[in-house]
Amino acid sequence: QISSISLRRVLDSRGNPTVEADVLTESGGFGRAAAPSGASTGEYEAIELPPKEAIANAREHAVPRLVDTVYAGDQRAVDGALRAADGTENFSEIGANSAVAISMAAAKAAADVLGAPLYQHLGGAFRGENFPVPLGNVIGGGEHAKDATDIQEFLAAPVGAPSVSEAVFANAKVHGAAGDILDERGIGAGKGDEGAWAPPVSDAEAFEIMDEAVSRVSEEVGFEIKFGLDVAASEMYDEGAYQYSDGEKSPDEQIEYIAELVEEYDLAYVEDPLDENDYEAFAELTEQVGDQTLICGDDLFVTNVSRLQDGIDQGAANSILIKPNQIGSLSDTVDAIELAVRNGYETIISHRSGETEDTTIAHLAVATDAGFIKTGTVAGERTAKLNELIRIAEDAV
Ligand code: PGA
Ligand code: ZN
Question: What is the C-alpha separation between 22 and 30, in angstroms, rounded?
């Protein structure tokens, strides 16, 4: 049984406060987890409250329902109590940030009681043997960096890597190669929120640089590295059109543009190429290029089973980004993953642009046999997850 829960504010990678939870059990189990935070958040995400408010409300409503009542290892009961304490559809009372921190900390406390790693506790005895391919953010802009690319993320996808660690190091090399190419071109670049280069270049030039960087590193390491995108198109969508620095595109033009990019660059992955309300356009693009690439819904699905079910019904996308804090609990997260898997949708477990050293998503990706994990490349709060993945792979093989 859970014997105590403490909540505090800690720093995230953007310098903002976020919620951290400690869960203790009667039998001496301990789990600690922190909520991440998005900048290009989807309209339909669960609600992140200001951390002070989220903590105060969770202390008042959620903690009394959990302490001395619920077993940490009974994840459905933990998350059910969080839902009951909150009483809304979107965690707007206790905050999805408090909820997800408690939910993840309880899972870790339960794993601690069992003396098992978190991925084993979450995945159980029938977990598969696959390891997720890390998608590494190399160049970016959008809401994550000013005066950089319109497309939010250009991501390395080391699809041919023989192991997790080789994939992780390959992504770091692609990030390095992109830095070299920027240097060669005399372009100075800072970094965005996730540590990707944020150069003042057009999207067209970013494509050239990515293409060159992945082919250089591919040749060096001897396996195939592709690349992909998070367009984060909802952020550009305004007055019926996608607003680029060099002009606007209608939804039909956007579909055509993305389909051409998939062809030209053999993209492995395209996230949120269209607005979060436009299932129809997603379905059209998926129809056109869904057999060649992953069309992934992030803001479209927000890790929400009912939005995902709508997408499945309409043929929108063929993969889903999974962010536990978009929905607020691990149970809801796993429900979304299971619905996706049952319908042949690939799953990509993801960080947020605001992160901490918390490594829960690395365990979740392994536990659920996710095809991919998106967790950045070379910033400390990103390497925390990547290094954990390397450790898990060593432990689990
Ligand atoms: P966010 O962006 O964490 O700022 O929402 C990440 C993403 O869009 O995938
Ligand atoms: Zn996204």
Answer: 7
